[in-house]
């Protein structure tokens, strides 16, 4: 079995074999003890045992009880070896540093110090009874061998400090990696939010506040705003009947929140100690994001919570500002386009139609006085004018249609997005289309783009897919979308369970909501190490009937 060792593991292994080499050399050059042949046999046996114990430890390192037994057996063998090869003068008495290092670096504090104390006590006890001279006393033996205990104790202490630092580093790295994953997911959700989802942005931010802080209760309270629909304040963790009272208490402090720019620790009557972070756009105060603090949280934990809430507050402010700018920009685009169309219609088609109407009215008044040839000539002029007006109207319509004018189409934009996604992530994305999207209403365009974007992004980010297939079928009364990938897959039951608990699955919930909002059906199938498949079927016209 190929076991990957860390730098610390390799250092311990190197120390084991180096200490074995040095103690073995000292054992060979000493004149006392058994014959040279027996010394060599002892060293070979010791080398074999060292190799076996090292391999056993790395193989079973995640099973503490097995490691305890292994370390205890090795310590006992070293103890017998040290006693049998000279006692006080044995070069192997310091070889016990090896199991001590493993015990200090991998096992509990109490086991390590029990092992060390037991070894020292048994070693000195045997030496006192079997190797002491007439002048030796227990006190003198303890003084003469105190350096042995000191070396072992310092080594154990140093190793345990290293272990503590390593665990803190690993916890910090794991927390950072988890936070980055949450941030990427949150950013993707915010980026692809529709108008409906945006009005529910408070719930998305609240859910992620719990993910980032690992606390049980969070909220996003929005202050009232003038103009436009007000965003809905949201909370997670409190009972539904407590929500109105909670937001009512927060509203009492609104003048204070508006003046604050720094995090606020505040005890809210009936709701406990809370950490609140004001959210500000460049133009106005938005509200506050908050979490309920646990009673046992220390200063370091509170600093971590402050960092997470500051990030969420900044992200929320940027998102809200971008949304408002996008709404304003869309309104300006629509207004400008309406003005341009009106100008074109007025300058061309309107003038031609006015001329036709005037000519027809004149012809009606004078037709009885005209000869047949004059009447035919006037009708021909009106016909030419009508033909010209129809041509100008057709040109105007073509200029407004991206498909007829050769401009970017919706399918072209989807294909361009997938091509960029494929190139940036080195992933093969096969996009197949059957049918035409020209007559498809705008809500379907928007929802389908978001579903395709969300599904392919998940396959790359979370599934580690190398190949993705996107099949889109567009028919007059029905839309079919199939997205398949060869990623690592997952347990779908576990995904929906976590989604209900608010710990994951927001992307899937968004896609399911988008499909159901159009009257469609969303099916998800996946298995671990077998990829993921999403099948969506949407009838065309359901949205229009709902809004009729």
UniProtKB/TrEMBL annotation:
InterPro entries, sorted: HATPase_C_sf (IPR036890), HATPase_dom (IPR003594), His_kinase_dom (IPR005467), Sensor_HK_TwoCompSys (IPR050482), Sig_transdc_His_kin-like_C (IPR004358), Sig_transdc_His_kin_sub3_dim/P (IPR011712)
Reaction(s) the record says it catalyses: ATP + protein L-histidine = ADP + protein N-phospho-L-histidine
GO-annotated molecular function: 4 iron, 4 sulfur cluster binding; ATP binding; metal ion binding; phosphorelay sensor kinase activity; protein dimerization activity
Entry-linked CDD domains: HATPase_UhpB-NarQ-NarX-like
The keyword Nucleotide-binding is assigned to this record: yes
Compartments it resides in: Cytoplasm
GO cellular component assignments: cytoplasm; membrane
Lineage: superkingdom: Bacteria
EC number of the protein: 2.7.13.3
Transmembrane segments: 12-30, 36-60, 67-88, 108-130, 142-163
Record bears the keyword Acetylation: no
Broad class of enzyme this protein falls into: transferase
SUPFAM superfamilies: ATPase domain of HSP90 chaperone/DNA topoisomerase II/histidine kinase
Signal peptide feature range: none
Residue ranges occupied by any Histidine kinase domain in the UniProt entry: 448-542
Record's keyword terms, sorted: 4Fe-4S, ATP-binding, Cytoplasm, Iron, Iron-sulfur, Kinase, Membrane, Metal-binding, Nucleotide-binding, Transferase, Transmembrane, Transmembrane helix, Two-component regulatory system
Needed cofactors: [4Fe-4S] cluster
Pfam families: HATPase_c (PF02518), HisKA_3 (PF07730)
Function: Member of the two-component regulatory system NreB/NreC involved in the control of dissimilatory nitrate/nitrite reduction in response to oxygen. NreB functions as a direct oxygen sensor histidine kinase which is autophosphorylated, in the absence of oxygen, probably at the conserved histidine residue, and transfers its phosphate group probably to a conserved aspartate residue of NreC. NreB/NreC activates the expression of the nitrate (narGHJI) and nitrite (nir) reductase operons, as well as the putative nitrate transporter gene narT.
Identification of the protein by name: Oxygen sensor histidine kinase NreB
């Amino acid at each position: 079995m190929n076991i990957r060792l860390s730098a610390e593991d390799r250092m311990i292994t190197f120390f084991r074999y180096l200490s074995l080499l040095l103690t073995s050399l000292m054992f060979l050059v000493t004149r006392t003890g058994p014959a040279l042949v027996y010394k060599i046999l002892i060293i070979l046996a010791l080398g074999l045992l060292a190799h076996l114990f090292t391999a056993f430890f790395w193989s079973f390192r995640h099973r503490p009880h097995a490691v305890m037994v292994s370390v205890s057996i090795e310590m006992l063998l070293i103890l017998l070896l040290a006693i049998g090869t000279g006692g006080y003068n044995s070069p192997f008495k310091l070889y016990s540093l090896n199991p001590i290092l493993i015990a200090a670096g991998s096992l509990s504090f109490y086991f390590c110090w029990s092992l060390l104390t037991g070894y020292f006590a048994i070693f000195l006890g045997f030496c006192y009874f079997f190797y002491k001279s007439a002048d030796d006393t227990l006190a003198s033996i303890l003084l003469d061998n105190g350096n042995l205990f000191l070396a072992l104790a310092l080594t154990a202490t140093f190793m345990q400090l290293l272990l503590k630092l390593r665990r803190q580093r690993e916890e910090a790295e794991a927390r950072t990696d988890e936070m980055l994953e949450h941030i990427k997911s949150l950013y993707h959700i915010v980026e692809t939010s529709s108008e409906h989802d945006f009005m529910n942005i408070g719930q998305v931010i609240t859910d992620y506040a719990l993910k980032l802080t690992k606390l049980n209760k969070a909220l996003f309270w929005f202050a009232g705003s003038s103009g436009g629909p007000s965003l809905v304040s949201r909370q997670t963790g409190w009972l539904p009947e407590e929500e109105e009272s909670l937001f009512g208490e927060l509203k009492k402090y609104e003048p204070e929140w508006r003046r604050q720019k720094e995090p606020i620790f505040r005890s809210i009557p009936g709701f406990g100690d809370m950490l609140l972070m004001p959210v500000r756009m460049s133009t106005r105060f938005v509200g506050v994001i908050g979490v309920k603090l646990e009673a046992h949280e220390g200063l370091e934990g509170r600093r971590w919570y402050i960092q997470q809430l500051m990030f969420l507050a900044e992200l929320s402010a940027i998102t809200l500002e971008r949304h408002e700018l996008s709404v304003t920009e869309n309104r300006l685009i629509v207004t400008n386009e309406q003005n341009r169309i009106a100008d074109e219609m007025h300058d061309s088609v309107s003038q031609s139609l006015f001329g036709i109407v005037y000519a027809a009215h004149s012809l009606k008044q004078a037709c009885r006085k005209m000869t047949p040839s004059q009447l035919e000539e006037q009708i021909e002029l009106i016909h030419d004018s009508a033909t010209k007006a129809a041509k100008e109207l057709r040109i105007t319509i073509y200029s407004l249609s991206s498909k007829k004018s050769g401009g970017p189409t919706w399918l072209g934009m989807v294909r361009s997005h997938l091509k960029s996604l494929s190139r940036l992530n080195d992933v093969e994305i096969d996009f197949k289309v059957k049918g035409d999207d020209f007559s498809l209403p705008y809500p379907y365009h928007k929802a389908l783009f978001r579903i395709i974007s969300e599904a392919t992004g998940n396959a790359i980010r979370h599934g580690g897919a190398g190949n993705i297939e996107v099949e889109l079928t567009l028919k007059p009364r029905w839309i079919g979308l199939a997205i398949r990938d060869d990623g690592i897959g997952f347990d779908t039951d576990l995904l929906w369970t976590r989604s209900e608990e608010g710990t994951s699955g927001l992307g899937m919930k968004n896609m399911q909501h988008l499909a159901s909002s159009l009257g469609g059906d969303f099916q998800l199938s996946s298995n671990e190490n077998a990829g993921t498949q999403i099948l969506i079927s949407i009838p065309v016209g359901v949205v229009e009937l709902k809004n009729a």
